[in-house]
């Protein structure tokens, strides 16, 4: 199915995955509506397409009227809303458990053809992590209302400006050491942001993905320690990697939670108790005919700004 001249509304489309998805959708010829908290700050998204192809709308995904205005004329909807810690009136319950259900109800009334919902590996109704538990509740609630929806569960997503490699590179520029929480043994399967966006496009255009849940991971698995070591190698820095138990991190994580953008929270500590990799029993990105790209193809290039002579380089 071609997406040319179809209208796709993206809820939460100004974030990391959203920016990549808008570019891919624009190239496909789709018309794109983006619901974001501040349209002025996100106006650069319009440059991804031709004049009038990308519409950026200010609104609150927790307000039904704003969702209605965003998806009223949409053929398809993509939900990218997710939070790692509560902020303001956003919390895990209303943003990750309740929003998918409300979105499904509204989309059904407006005859939206399909919803693609981006969740996360680790979504589990029995999880001790509120992030993972509410992700699973959101999936369940959406599929009850809209059984033809498609769920995508990526592992950590990487790309320029990501929340892992780029974030730890910045920390390494000012810190003499990096913590190996839980000994650095937790495994991850990083997936390139462009591959996640391509997966969304495939699901929008192919009915065989209706009602399915897919887990998205890259070609290789790495321990947390291996990923931090790779980050340091990519920026040409030597930093101590200090093992620290989850128990020892509980007090710092509790104190960090009062910050607007905490480096680690108690809930994230609970998430690190389980590997974040694709299950052998779940369909994966190979179902879409996509060969996932390795970290080596991208990470050293967008972290080059932190190397000697880069714009963030220092003599530390």
General description of the model:
The protein is of the alpha/beta class and 316 residues long. It has a domain at 7-156 and 191-218 and 278-288: Rossmann fold. The protein has 10 helices and 13 strands. The protein has helices spanning 16-28, 64-71, 92-109, 130-145, 165-174, 193-205, 224-235, 246-256, 266-271, 299-302; strands spanning 7-11, 31-36, 54-58, 76-79, 114-118, 150-154, 157-158, 177-181, 187-188, 191-192, 213-216, 222-223, 240-244. The protein has a 7-stranded parallel beta sheet, sandwiched between helices. Strands 7-10 form a two-stranded parallel sheet. α4 links the parallel β5 and β6. The radius of gyration is 19 Å and the shape is globular. The mean pLDDT is 94.
Structural key phrases:
Rossmann fold; alpha/beta; 10 helices; 35% helix; 316 residues; 7-stranded parallel beta sheet
